[in-house]
Amino acid sequence: LGKSRLLHQNLLIESAEKILLPHPLNHGEDYLRKRLRELANDRRRFGYRRLGILLAREGLVVNHKKLFRLYREEGLAVHCRRSRKRALGTRRPILVPDRVNQRWSLDFVSDAFADGQRYRVLCIVDDYTREALATVVDRSLSGARMTRELDDLISRRGQPNMIVSDNGTEMTSHAVLRWCQDTGVGCHYIAPGKPMQNAFV
């Protein structure tokens, strides 16, 4: 009688587990990819392992190697957050210039042709005389191109004590920072979100 009761209890436990525990669902790979994309869209900072846990809760138990393959093929890899590059120039308040070549301001303006192609203009202004020293127009203007234009301008007008610019990628590039170090020209960056600090351009 005792063995019969124990067997009956085991059968009841197995029946309860079949009812309560999720079973692996035999969906096709297309459905698995669809759910993986949907979950990744809802949980943008979840990697494939954590997404696998969410899938398992739905009964979609997948081998971790297969899950990783699908995760990569769908382009769902979590991108590492990179810290913003900080410029090495000074941002302390600067004095009003009182002579030529004491300070030059640099900035970009941009526009587009009638066919939609965009172009950029590098403007260089002497803050004392308010003279436009150079306007360089091109489809693309890199930091290295800026340094070449500055070298050409210095050969004709003399070297400034300081250049002033915003925090754009060209202005804070390695080429510009290295040029300032090699030439001894000071580099001043305006405060972020304060374009009026570079109002001469």
From TrEMBL:
<dbReference type="InterPro" id="IPR036397">
    <property type="entry name" value="RNaseH_sf"/>
</dbReference>
<feature type="domain" description="Integrase catalytic">
    <location>
        <begin position="93"/>
        <end position="201"/>
    </location>
</feature>
<dbReference type="InterPro" id="IPR025948">
    <property type="entry name" value="HTH-like_dom"/>
</dbReference>
<dbReference type="GO" id="GO:0003676">
    <property type="term" value="F:nucleic acid binding"/>
</dbReference>
<dbReference type="Pfam" id="PF13276">
    <property type="entry name" value="HTH_21"/>
</dbReference>
<dbReference type="InterPro" id="IPR012337">
    <property type="entry name" value="RNaseH-like_sf"/>
</dbReference>
<protein>
    <submittedName>
        <fullName>Putative transposase</fullName>
    </submittedName>
</protein>
<dbReference type="GO" id="GO:0015074">
    <property type="term" value="P:DNA integration"/>
</dbReference>
<dbReference type="InterPro" id="IPR001584">
    <property type="entry name" value="Integrase_cat-core"/>
</dbReference>
<dbReference type="Pfam" id="PF00665">
    <property type="entry name" value="rve"/>
</dbReference>
